From TrEMBL:
Gene3D superfamilies: Phosphoglycerate mutase-like. InterPro entries: His_Pase_superF_clade-1, His_PPase_superfam, Phosphoglycerate_Mutase. SUPFAM superfamilies: Phosphoglycerate mutase-like. PANTHER family: FRUCTOSE-2,6-BISPHOSPHATASE TIGAR. Pfam families: His_Phos_1. Keywords: Hydrolase. Signal peptide: none annotated. The keyword Transport does not apply. The lineage of its organism: Bacteria, Bacillati, Actinomycetota, Actinomycetes, Streptosporangiales. This is Histidine phosphatase family protein.
Amino acid sequence: MPVEIVFETHSVSQDNERGIATGWLPGRLSERGRRLAAELGERRRDDGLAAVFTSDLTRAAETASLAFAGTGVAILHDWRLRECDYGDSNGMPADQVHRSRSAYLDQPYPGGESWRQAVHRVGRFLGDVSLRWSGTRILVIGHVATRLAFDHFIDGVPLEELVDADFSWREGWEYRLTA
């Protein structure tokens, strides 16, 4: 049986508002981000979720915690859902880090990882989630790398087409993962 996956990005962080590429740094939600996290909870609380999976980075974990506080829905943290590790560029201005993501499709950021490595890390999560959560609906709160992995592994879109595409926010993406 397939796993129905709803993907939501972490809420707006202080770094997002300052134009910083946080990468593997923890990041904290801004005041606006905390409000949006509460709205995410309102939007998804009655969505038939068996569990919420979140990146273990603070900005994603904080989003899940605020959105699902008091609901009884299990929140499970998984490091494989992290953003791409920009290495020495974690915390640098986003316009510099994301100027040409395709340059780092296969070549790791100095001291970090490549986009392909990040996407394959998230792919290992998908392999495991289909074993335990078959026939359920789950929510995943993550980052750009998380969504790229879902588009690549579930929808079959080549990474070469995804890596430099604009990331436009919306209220959730829906995926159907078959074993």
